[in-house]
Amino acid sequence: MARRHVIASPKRFAPLAVSAALALIGGVMVGARYEPPEKRTVAAFTQAWERGDHRAMYALLSDSARRRTTFERLQRTYQQAADTLTLTRVRAGAVQQDGVPITLDTRIFGPLRGVLVLPTGEREGQDPGVDWSSELVYPGLHDGEKLKRETSLPERASILARDGQAIAEGPDRLSDLGPLASEIAGRVGPAPEERLPELAKRGVPADSQVGLTGLERQFDERLSGTPGGVLYAGGRVLARKPALRGADVKSSIDPKLQRAAIEALAGRYGGIAAIAPKTGEVLALAGIAQSAPQPPGSVFKIITLAGALQNKAVKRNSSYEVTDRATIEGVDIQNANGEYCGGTLRNSFAHSCNSVFAPLGAKLGAQKLVETAEAFGFNQDPGLSGAARSTIPLPNEIGDDLAVGSSAIGQGKVLATPLEMALVGATIAAGGVKPKPTLLRGDDTQGTRVISKGVASTVKSYMRSVVTDGTGGAAALPDVKVSGKTGTAELRTTVKEEPPPEGGDPNAAPVEDDTTDTNAWFVAFAPYTDPEIAVGVLFVAQGTGGDTAAPAARVVLDAAF
What is the total count of domains within the chain? Predict the structure, then answer.
């Protein structure tokens, strides 16, 4: 019998060979993609630290670590470490075999780098957890070591006037300008409690002397410089950094105008602010210039007039009845001293006719009146440290037409500072662009358009008429064209001289004016063509704007020119 030779076809076994090869390759690839659970935990923990998510960090702790510590303790430990380091940011690298590269950016010591080794332990039903202890708040801390910092502060930098004269310098914050300097420089002293968190982030010890008011407060961080110190881990020195003195601050304050403002106040309770309309540089601040807001009275009519013209609620050629009062919601609103006025819109503004501007405010409406006031800076942060807001009730809070009309003439619940009203004057002077106030000379601030150039030009012209033909003649200068607006905010009554009571002697001598019944205001700018200065003046409970505040504004304007 012939022997049969069976030759196996290679095609028969090829699929098995390919499958085995693919399985081998797949196993290699899966192995390459495999990430140990411990690595996933460590990566998630350091990423949570980068975000400052202490809750997520605590959730990643091992069971034994969670039994040893509470979330509150973990959070407190990291916060204390951050305060000690003056930490600003945590940056974690990719997990390596020997740990995680960590960079801690700090205010005082700059970037601090190290490798953090995070041990892991069991976490029931999940990937392993971080077996946490307090030494893990900083790379390389030994058992029982704690972070601590010794801080050194540089000498406080000097505050200079715009002409370079020292306003405050040296440890005692002295100045050759004497009382003039102390009026604007402000005070230094122990930090108030509400500022302690901010100071801690800067690395400033809680018992340090810091700026509390005035320019010392406005530029406190710059004047304080950069603290230095030594960072310790137990007894080991981790980092050193010398303290760096801050740069001297050249303020926008003009000593000549500051002196004039103080002299114009003459010890009376009030405030004066002066601003450069083009730049927003604050040239002088005296008394309560940026604090203690008061009813502004008729200087607020600058805003009412601007809003009415901008929103076409009035025309420049409008004319009005000459009368001593207007009736809104059945209530009489009288002109100051019961005077008769009216006629053209220009004349009504020049003579500050409540009988015209209260109804005009009601016609403009609460919504537009408040929007205009807010565009000029009311209900906004003034932008200077320690400066109070000037306020007007929101449209849905003002009330009926009577309340809107009262607000339009600066009464009701409207409150303003001389700084804010100087800004209003500066906005008109700058063609309808509101400057951003700054106390830093040469600060490049960007103004905001509030009203059109045309409307600003009209209001500017009307404010010139206040000084030439109206209630503000006492602010006039012989060689400089001054524009302004008087304000007499009535505190208790609307008519100074009441008629004699029934049966009284009509020939009896009139009762003298009660000057404590009114706030005296004046807002001005000059020169007319190219204004260089705007001024806001307030005297609390001391007469009328034309008699008391306008002459004070003249003192400051005269010093400017």
Answer: 3
Instruction: Tell me: do 167 and 104 sit in the same domain.
Output: no
Report the CATH number that the domain containing residue 216 is assigned in CATH.
Answer: 3.90.1310.10
Q: 360 CB contacts (<8 Å, ≥6 apart)?
A: 304, 308, 313, 314, 408
The pLDDT-based confidence of 168 (bands split at 50, 70, 90) is very high
Report phi then psi at 170, rounded to 5: 75, 175
Has residue 295 been placed in a domain? yes
CA 545, distance to chain mean position in Å, is 30
What tokens were used for 133? 């202890």
Average pLDDT across the chain, whole number:
89
pLDDT at 1 over 50: no
Q: Can you list the alpha helix ranges (DSSP code H) found in 288-417?
A: 301-310, 345-350, 354-364, 366-376, 395-398, 401-408
Start-to-end C-alpha separation, the chain: 137
Per-residue pLDDT band for 331 (boundaries 50, 70, 90) equals very high
Average pLDDT over residues 504-508: 48
Six-digit token string for 69: 């510590």
The pTM of the full predicted model, rounded to 2 decimals, is 0.79
Alpha-carbon Rg for the chain, nearest whole angstrom, is 36
Q: What pLDDT, on a 0 to 100 scale, did the predictor assign at position 201? A: 80
Longest dimension (CA), the chain: 165
Task: Kindly report the backbone phi and psi dihedral angles of residue 237, in degrees, each rounded to the nearest multiple of 5, phi listed first.
Answer: -85, 120
Alpha-carbon dihedral of residues 215, 217, 218, 224, nearest 10 degrees?
100
Has residue 307 been placed in a domain?
Answer: yes
Question: Which of 105, 122, 144 is the endpoint of a domain?
Answer: 144
Amino acid at 16: L
Quickly tell me which residue has 């003649």 as its tokens: 473
Judgement on whether residues 47 and 77 belong to the same structural domain of the protein:
yes
Range(s) of the domain holding residue 109: 37-144
In angstroms, rounded to a whole number, what is the distance separating the alpha carbons of residues 237 and 44? Answer: 30
The per-residue DSSP string of 467-508 comes to HHHSTTGGG--SSS--EEEEEEEESS-S-SSPPPPTTS-TTS
Rounded to an integer, what distance in angstroms lies between the CA atom of residue 302 and that of residue 128? Answer: 71
pLDDT confidence of residue 486: 97
